[in-house]
Specification:
With about 140 residues, the chain is an all-alpha fold.
Length: about 140
């Protein structure tokens, strides 16, 4: 009982010490940080023709679609280690079931052997008590 109470007290105290030692995840800072975006100097800006850019993007997109349709389609196959891992994970419940059933079978065999031993002892004792009862009856 003393050991249990000391264990509970130790667990509670250890949790309290861990709670006292923790600090916030974000450090405090003083002041306001303002980011000043870097601007390009006046007069160095360049102009873009967005229509031209969209047309080149569309042509590149169409070219990539044509190349994808012409190239032979490769089937995405899983590698041997991936298949082996998936089979192992799917086979785990079966392996566990087989192991548990084997253990229970061995346990049942040992228990039945001990039960047979107990039954033999009971039968022997019963025969002995019957013999003594019969001898007492004959004697009287």
């Amino acid at each position: 009982m003393l050991f249990r109470s000391l264990t509970i007290i130790f667990i509670l105290l250890s949790q309290l010490t861990f709670a006292q030692g923790r600090k916030p995840a974000v450090e405090d800072f003083v002041g306001i940080e303002v980011e000043h975006p870097e601007t390009t100097p006046q007069g160095t800006e360049s102009l873009f023709n967005f229509e031209k850019e969209i047309k080149t993007f569309e042509t590149q997109k169409q070219d990539s679609k044509l190349e994808a349709s012409k190239s032979p389609s490769t089937s995405s196959s899983l590698g041997f280690p991936a298949v082996l891992g998936i089979l192992f994970i799917l086979g785990l419940p079966t392996m566990i079931w087989v192991m548990i059933m084997g253990h229970l079978k061995n346990k049942a065999q040992t228990e039945s052997a001990s039960n047979i031993e107990v039954l033999e002892n009971y039968r022997r004792q019963r025969k002995e008590t019957r013999k003594t009862e019969e001898e007492q009856r004959k004697a009287s």
